[in-house]
Amino acid sequence: SVITSPPYWQLRDYGYPEQWGLEPTFNEYLEHLWEMMDEIYRVLKPSGTAWINLGDTYNTISGGIRGLERAKKENNLKSISKKNIIGQGFQQIKSDKIKSKCLLLLPHRFAIGCIERGWILRNDIIWAKRNGMPEPVTDRLTKKHEYFFLLTKNEKYYFDLEAIKDKSISNDKSKNPGSVSDFWDIPTKPSSNEHYASYNDNLIMKPILSGCPENGIIYDPFMGTGSTAEASLRANRNFIGSEMSKKYCIIAEERLKPF
Fold this sequence. Notes:
The protein is an alpha/beta fold. Helix content is 27%, strand content 16%. The chain is built from 6 helices and 9 strands. It has helices at 26-43, 62-73, 106-116, 201-211, 227-234, 246-255, and strands at 2-4, 49-54, 85-86, 89-90, 120-128, 145-152, 183-185, 217-220, 238-241. The strands form 3 sheets. A 5-stranded mixed beta sheet has the order 1-2-6-5-7, sandwiched between helices. A two-stranded antiparallel sheet has the order 3-4. The protein has a two-stranded parallel ribbon with strand order 8-9.
């Protein structure tokens, strides 16, 4: 099983060259993600699942500035080359075909591209974040949800619904109860390791337990500080991860020493 959350477009600088997420256009960003999905398709076993978490943004230069300012507040701003800066924000080239301030629907553009590349999209799961931060806008609603996409290579694949059912509720094994739905009302969880994209365990355990059998292998191509790795190992799954940030690798290695 593959479980990952790629860097969101124009949100944060992770401090290493050629990183994904700082592409000047969202089309270039999506092409990188589809290249990743092509490789995942190649190595994923026929019964495997892929769970991809993505957030969205708007067609406005302020989207890049917003990410820069947030990084400053979080003391997470690394040196950025001049080619990646316009004024005070990351370089972001607005689409001429889309009006300013329009939501880009990047998660669903990504998902449609995956379908066109041969993936089967089984769910577009809504991750509702009640405790999400308010936004400094007054002409639209505050956005407090993201998407988790469940994708497979084949019509038949490993999926254990029983593993994520609420055991306090009497369930009919022949049916999918409404409590096990594509709406996950799970709050965000602050990280103590200066990695601001870490998962809440209650969130990440759902794809781990349902999408991968015990002693199976979970791969995260953007493992960060190892939140998915730790949860996978605690759930008696094997784990493989990739991470370009040396800082995060050091944190992950320390975090995983008990295992």
